Amino acid sequence: MRHFCLVLLTYLALAAHVACGSAFVVGECRLPLMWLPVLLAVTWFADARGIAWAAMIGLLADGLSSGRFGQEMLATSLAAALLLPLLPEPRSRSALPMLVWQFALIGSGLLVSHGYGSLFDGNGPLLLSALPQLSLEAFAGAIVFSMTSRLIEAISKPVAQAARL
Does the reported pTM lie above 0.70? Predict the structure, then answer.
């Protein structure tokens, strides 16, 4: 069931990113929709399967983007592999550690993606002046993901219980 939900969410997130990505822009800040299924995969499968899902989602995002091929796959798999050991316990009293971890995963992935892209696009290196925008995008993505994951859990629990009956 989780694999099906993940495939469906990946398709919806990438389709929304391609079809109406400009509608999700506030000022200079873009909502990182591609990171929603990456966060879900790494959270659900807190092992090598989560990293493999992150790499596949990044590869799909590379195929749909106009940037250098491999840029998003490198960013998603590297961020997932480096931050997976820091995943907080799922039953902590507060949602704050998970929100901080989600922000760190999205932020580090965006930093790798934009940094790698800026080196090869001829725009020069990524400057410190771009960090506020990237952190705002990561924060918006973490907030949207926390709302989306709660919705998915609320829907999937009754479906899974009904399937057992």
Answer: yes
